[in-house]
Amino acid sequence: MRFNIAFRNFFIVLLSTLVLSACATQKKASVQTVDDVYTGTETIEYLAKGVPDRVFFATNKSKLTTAARDTLRKQATWLRKNKDINITVEGHADERGTREYNLALGERRANAAKDYLMTYGISGKRISVISYGKERPVNPTSTPLAWSQNRRSVSVKAN
Amino acid sequence: MKKIITFILICIFSSKSAHSLVKVDITRGNLDPLPIAVSPLYVDTKSEKLSSLEVDDLGKNVSKVIENNFRSTGLFNPLKKDAFVQKPDIAHLKPRFEDWRLIKAQALITGKLLIKDKKLKVEFRLWDTTAAQEMLALSFTTTPENWRRVAHIISDKVYERLTGESGYFDTRVIYVSETGPKGQRIKKLALMDQDGYNTKYLTLGNELVLTPRFNPTNQLVTYMSYFKNMPRVYLLDIETGVQEVVGSFPGMTFAPRFSPDGKKIIMSYAEDGNSDIYSMDMETRVVEKITDHPSIDTSPSYSPDGKFICFNSDRSGLQQLYVMRSDGTQVKRITFGKGIYGTPVWSPRGDLIAFTKVRKGRFYIGVMRTDGSGERLLTENYYQEAPSWSPNGRVLIFYRETKSDSKGKGHSAKLWSIDITGYNERQIKTETDASDPSWSSLLSK
After folding, report:
1. What is the phi-psi region of residue B317: left when phi exceeds 0, alpha when psi lies from -120 to 50, beta otherwise?
2. Does residue A85 share a domain with residue A95?
3. Nearest CA distance, B410 vs chain A (angstrom)
4. What global pTM score does this model have?
5. What range does the domain containing A18 cover?
6. What ipTM score was computed for the predicted complex, to two decimals?
């Protein structure tokens, strides 16, 4: 029992050290990405006032972050108010993957955004998707920051 | 196209037994390339003049193409012509072997050409200078415009005779030509001879095109196009220029490849965020779903006997390589190494799978046995992918991209080739930037 408590305390100390050092390296690496996802505002355009057009993803992932869901809810609200507008969600990948896989990944990202918009009441008929894989980077430089900006799905007006 | 392919092999003079004659071992990296002399082909004085070609230079030009082919293999060392003592016409009749041995040539190619009735007649001989013997003699007739192909066919015949393997010089490469800024690349389908000559552009660049691949007879190409902003797999007839969409899928189809019998196209179809592998019979138009998994399944490639398919899937969490029977059963993961794997392509010999590997931010082209064992990484770089096999399964062609700087400049995409021994890595010159190369089979068999 005593050993167990000692072990647990040691574990807690170890864990907090790990968390602290993780935070430190995160800050050093870039303030514009958190957990490999872009959190800055550069490259973002607006569908309407306060409605960002894009969301960002982690490497090889298509899971929506809290910030992404927040953006998509704003898009859904705007789409509900503007019933005559249809959109195309473009899915993109960064340049650090093979071309064919990136096409599939871009499609999966675009659909993640589309699905979320649909759960907020937007008809799937108003949303088409297209994947560009790594073919259309918004930032053409070869840096981790650029890659994070390129891992995106962008909602564009289709009509 | 058809015209080009109607080569007539007229006669085989002789081909003596191979005992103890000069031979090149190509199964390992050759650090001691075989010295070979390619005498300029003698132009028969009875040759007609042509308006389209400088006939007097033709013999020299054919020999230069042959030399360039041999140099590109890394297995041969074509000797400088200034050292040649014997005149082409005399050498072709009967070489003075001691002259050629003096300049260290171990093999000698001689030849003669004649243009008569607007036809080009070429004969050539391969000699073993040490054994003082003729090893090969052939002649053929074609249209004079085909002179580069004549040189490639001669190269293939000599390569076959000296290495015991089939050649790969009379082949073409289809690829994607790239121009313009990185964020807005203009891409066209382009076709060229394996040595980078005779480039033809097959699309105009109005829409994005990707990943072209030949059918087994090299008449058709399947590729992906964003025509009308609908990314789909297409089929192009090179001879007629006719293009058609493959199948009637409601969403994106991509990563197409022909089956080894040319009857099917295998590809990925993406539906609601999930990509699976499908095949379509070109004649019956019957579509078959081959994989059914809620992960990304793409980059399918058949084994040469058509019984198996290797492909790329992230069903384990990250991109790995898998092999299954061509009906989709018995799926087996074959890569377990550190890093991620993509673009598996089955070798035409059936014994190896070439792939792209990404590890610690670096890209590798490698080969492994078809069960995933014996992985060998051949080349490492910032970005490279998409290997395609030479028809003899000895060389891989792939594309490599360079980094762009903080202003987005300095980016390039080029074609490269490397032997499966890991030796002889070289860039293949293209008129523009280039990617997604696919090697044809031999045009004349």
Report:
1. left
2. yes
3. 9
4. 0.90
5. 1-29
6. 0.92
